[in-house]
Design goal:
Oligomer: single chain
Largest sheet: none
CATH superfamily of the largest domain: MFS general substrate transporter like domains
Strand content: under 5%
Order of helices and strands: HHHHHHHHHHHHHH
Number of helices: 14
Distance between the termini: 29 Å
CATH architecture of the largest domain: Up-down Bundle
Number of domains: 2
């Protein structure tokens, strides 16, 4: 509910010339949370127990709710009076559930049936939405809006190519390099810190020049970072890994907020909520597919075993294969990003 509405609210209250800046600050806030989360969570767990993580959310949530009621005075609903597409929502939800749960079960045989069911559900959903009077997701947004379609495709590819990177490097640093979880976390935090610092700048830049240009540069930098990680081996030094994480941080910072700016600027105010929700769906399904690819490669190269020293060589082969796939996906994503055309 938060991710489906936050971007829509930001776009609604900021003028077109300041959207990128607002979205950049929003992205920086998200990445700052991702950076601080492990450290704050570890501190709370060590000193107050793991339940304190959930309890700490309560006062923070109450503060945010209070600020919302004090500062957001207006409320709007551009589609007020339209009938809610309940049938389309159910088909859509079950379809995504089947695909995402299926990806989480890879490489089990049951996962293939769930993914196939989800794919068939997509066709059923599209067919229903074309006929619906007030569709939950207007198919014409994809058919008649090139910028919207390719911006969402670029987001899906980007998340698919990058989400499992931290997971793979975390295992690599602990199993191959023998680092502790704490030291591993300190190394991996370089990426979100860079993203936090440069996201507002990238967002502001997308207000001045076409978002597709900024986002495409970000996608290219990300592809370069992933390509460099394909050379990872047992002797790779930590400085090289940190440099790759910094490069990935730059790439993701220059892609995320400008791409979001392109998505939201390509639709009218009535469709802000739909566009924000669609972008969130691209992000989550891309992340699930990214992990699905990693798990499938582990199953192919290693099998269902614990990663002990005797399996380290096979583990490295699976990691290398993953980075080759991710770098290839991101390289293709550059063309999807450029193909969206102008939004201004």
């Amino acid at each position: 509910m938060v991710f489906g509405t936050a971007v829509a609210i930001l776009i609604s209250v900021f003028p077109a010339g300041e959207r990128g800046k607002a979205l950049g600050i929003n992205a920086a806030s998200i990445y700052l949370g991702l950076s601080l989360g492990p450290f704050v969570g570890g501190f709370l767990t060590q000193h107050f127990g793991w339940r304190s993580i959930f309890l700490a959310t309560i006062p923070v949530g109450l503060i945010v709710i209070t600020l919302i009621f004090l500062t957001l005075k207006e409320e709007w609903a551009e589609a007020r009076g339209e009938r809610f597409d309940l049938s389309g929502s159910i088909i859509y939800s079950l379809t995504l559930l089947a695909i995402m749960y299926g990806l989480s079960l890879l490489p089990a045989l049951s996962s293939l049936w769930l993914i196939l069911t989800g794919i068939l559900g997509i066709f059923a959903f599209i067919r229903w939405e074309i006929k619906a009077i007030n569709p939950i997701l207007g198919i014409n947004l994809f058919r008649n809006n090139r910028a919207f379609s390719f911006s969402n495709l670029a987001a899906f590819i980007n998340y698919c190519a990058t989400f499992a990177v931290v997971f793979l490097l975390s295992l690599y640093l602990q199993y191959i390099k023998g680092l502790s979880p704490q030291k591993t976390g300190l190394i991996l935090v370089f990426q979100p810190v860079v993203m936090t610092i440069f996201s507002p700048f990238a967002g502001r830049l997308s207000d001045r020049i076409e978002p597709r240009i900024v986002a495409s540069i970000g996608m290219a930098l990300t592809a370069l970072g992933l390509f460099l990680l394909t050379s990872l081996n047992e002797k790779t030094n930590l400085e090289f890994i940190i440099a790759c994480l910094i490069l990935l941080g730059f790439g993701l910072a220059f892609f995320a907020s400008p791409n979001t700016n392109a998505v939201m600027s390509s639709v009218g105010k009535k469709f802000y909520g739909v566009a924000s929700g669609t972008l969130g769906t691209m992000r989550l399904t891309g992340q699930m597919l990214s992990m699905g690819i990693a798990m499938l490669l582990f199953a192919i190269y290693i099998g269902k075993v614990q990663i002990t020293p005797e399996y380290h060589q096979l583990f490295m082969k699976s990691v290398k294969a993953a980075f080759i796939i991710f770098a290839s996906l991101c390289s293709g994503g550059i063309f999807a990003s450029l193909a969206r055309g102008k939004v201004r």
